[in-house]
Amino acid sequence: MPKFGLVMKGIPVRNMGTPRAATPADSFAVRSLSELTGGEEMRQEAHRHNFFYLLITARGAGEHIIDFTAYPVGNYTLFFMRPGQVHQLRLEADSTGYMIQFERQFYFLQEKGFEHLLQKAASVNYYPLQEGLFREVYTLVTAVFEEAAHGREGYREVILAHLSILFARLIRQAAVRYEGSGNLYIQQRMQEFEALLEKYAPFNKPVAAYAAMMHLSIYQLNAIVKQMQGKTASQVISDYVVLEAKRRLLCTGETVARIATALGFEDASYFIRFFKRHTGIAPEAFRRKCR
């Protein structure tokens, strides 16, 4: 079998059927992988979503490429994608599990704290789980599938409750990656910085802007990021800007000059140098190579 590589050709944006879902039911979907694959290998070429996406595999093999990072699909794995991320997927024929899709509006009537759970859980794309924890997760997801299938009174509230528990479980699991990296305060501030990056990195804001939004000094923010990731805040910001540049280069037909302006660069030539310094290749060359 040929290697499954990242191929980008006019990457489409997928939605959940309508530009703006008319009812809560239109903004949520869950399907079994056996139904999706139909007993055959499933391949999805590169695309991006305007909704949240979870892939849960009880048994599986293949490869999942999310924002240019390749992850193995295996037993007891969960993938969580945010709107706007680019991904490409190959699933072997005998893979089992579930796929969940939902728009942010599905949670508009949920209590305020739920959005925070969603944001934190979705900040991690790849969750390789131990069998015990996976069984807990799978029980929750199976309950979500059954509630959606029957559609009895109050099913939406029950689904939200199960998803809330699921997200809390994932957040606890994600916290393992921070063990030994600092206390709870440091972890929380790093997560706050990452959330701001998701929102503002496409505008290429300086470190001082993020520090101000977090009510920290530049020195304090750098110390937090250095402790958690071994990089400066400026380096992490640059990583996010490069990622957004790659998305735009491959998902749109915008000129390099227009992308540079959209990302906050006053001079396209500076953007080209910035991109090449961080990737080793010029923007247009990157676009041609991946297309």
Descriptive overview:
The protein is an alpha+beta fold. The relative contact order is 0.10. The chain has eleven helices and ten strands. The protein folds into two domains: 13-178, Jelly Rolls, CATH 2.60.120.280; 184-290, Arc Repressor Mutant, subunit A (Orthogonal Bundle).
Helix/strand class: alpha+beta
Provide the gyration radius in Å. Answer: 20 Å
Helix content range: 40-55%
Overall tally of domains: 2
Mean pLDDT: 85
CATH homologous superfamily placement of the largest domain? Regulatory protein AraC
Main sheet strand line-up:
1-3-8-5-6
Topology, element by element:
Layout: E1 13-14, E2 28-32, H1 33-37, E3 42-49, E4 52-59, E5 62-66, E6 69-73, E7 77-81, E8 86-91, E9 96-102, H2 112-121, E10 126-128, H3 131-150, H4 155-174, H5 184-200, H6 207-213, H7 218-229, H8 233-251, H9 256-262, H10 268-279, H11 283-290
Parallel strand pairs: 1-3
Antiparallel strand pairs: 2-9, 3-8, 4-7, 4-9, 5-6, 5-8, 7-10
Helix pairs in contact: 2-4, 3-4, 5-7, 8-11, 9-10
